[in-house]
Specification:
Blueprint lengths: L7 E7 L5 E7 L14 H11 L6 E7 L7
Antiparallel strand pairs: 1-2, 1-3
Amino acid sequence: MAETPYPYYRMQASGPDETGYSLIIQVAQGAGGGLEGLPSEADVIAAVRSIFDGDGVSTTLTRCAVESTPL
């Protein structure tokens, strides 16, 4: 089974009193590469994760791969 070229990430940002967000993120660079200041997939993920930095907020990040299954 071949892995798709674009893995995705599941991010959980949790705060006090059961507050938080759950995100699914898929990052694919354009044909010309990444953006200035965000040249890699890791830079994009770090930028998104930094949005949730703050008092009492914790984040977890899981990288998931999607595999094709023959029908």
